[in-house]
């Protein structure tokens, strides 16, 4: 069946280091993926997205990599800051903007 | 731009009562809005898709008679939890799509925390 899951539920990094958050998906037909950041008690906040015809997309301090061969998605955060501490979700667009969210990874930045 | 608001941000109600949650797109029109539920330390689960001017589409396992959705205009969708029970206590989040071109991004509201006592 379809699923979007995360390899690690928690991740701790030192301030200034790079963070890598991983996500696996099973629907090879999916053509659009989004990473969201959710702080405690708030709604998800868009970080970056990528279409299946791309392997990599960069934003400000963030990069998303898509490996369609192994159905794997990753979010890289450069020079991680305390304000990056949150839960990160990958989401798969199943069509018509119908998003399926992964389990989530809690990122903790150690000062 | 592309701001989505929810009201109220939190609500406490007694078991058996009904609660209405509003979702508004403040600076754009949304023909489709989405309602999610999130339990503590869990992911977001899509409950239903709200379509302006027509009936909502519910995900499997979501009771349409319990979670009433009305999308009365292009900027407002409401979710009414009827005859609420403690197990309905959760964080309810709405979203609306506003992306064009490359992006099919959804913008999320800040969420409404419902506690049923």
How would you describe this structure in keywords?
heterodimer; A: 111 residues; mainly beta; six-stranded mixed β-sheet; five-stranded antiparallel β-sheet; globular; B: 117 residues; four-stranded antiparallel β-sheet
Structural overview:
The complex is a heterodimer of chains A (111) and B (117). Chain A is mainly β and 111 residues long. Chain A has no helices and eleven strands. In chain A, a hairpin with a 5-residue loop joins strand 9 (86-93) and strand 10. Chain A starts with a strand and ends with a strand. In chain A, 35% of the residues are buried. The mean pLDDT of chain B is 91. In chain B, the strands form two sheets. In chain B, strands 2, 4, 5, 6, 9, 10 and 11 form a seven-stranded mixed sheet that branches. Chain B is an all-beta fold. At the A-B interface, strand 4, strand 5 and strand 10 of A face strand 5, strand 9 and strand 10 of B.
Quick overview:
The complex is a heterodimer of chains A (111) and B (117). Chain A has no helices and eleven strands.
Largest sheet of chain A: 6 strands, mixed
Average pLDDT figure of chain B: 91
What class do helices, strands and sheet pairing of chain A give? mainly beta
Give unreliable regions of chain B as ranges: none
DSSP strand content of chain B = over 45%
String of helices and strands of chain B: EEEEEEEEEEE
Oligomer: heterodimer
């Amino acid at each position: 069946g379809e699923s979007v899951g995360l390899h690690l539920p928690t991740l701790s990094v030192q301030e200034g280091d790079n963070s890598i958050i991983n996500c696996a998906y099973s629907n090879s037909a999916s053509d659009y993926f989004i990473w969201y950041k959710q702080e405690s008690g708030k709604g998800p906040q868009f970080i970056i997205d990528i279409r299946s015809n791309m392997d990599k997309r960069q934003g400000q301090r963030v990069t998303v990599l898509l490996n369609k061969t192994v159905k794997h998605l990753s979010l890289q955060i450069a020079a991680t800051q305390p304000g990056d501490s949150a839960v990160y979700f990958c989401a798969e667009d199943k069509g018509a903007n119908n998003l399926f969210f992964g389990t989530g990874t809690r990122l903790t930045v150690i000062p | 731009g592309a701001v989505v608001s929810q009201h109220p941000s939190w609500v406490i109600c007694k078991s058996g009562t009904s609660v209405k949650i509003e979702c508004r797109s403040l600076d754009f029109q949304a023909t489709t809005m989405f309602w999610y539920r999130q339990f503590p330390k869990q992911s977001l689960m899509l409950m239903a898709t709200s379509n302006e001017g027509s009936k909502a589409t519910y995900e499997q396992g979501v009771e349409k008679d319990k979670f009433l959705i009305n999308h009365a205009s292009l900027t407002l969708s409401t979710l009414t939890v009827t005859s609420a029970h403690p197990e309905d206590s959760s964080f309810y989040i709405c979203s609306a799509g506003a992306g064009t071109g490359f992006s099919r991004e959804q913008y999320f509201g800040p969420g409404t925390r419902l506690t049923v006592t």
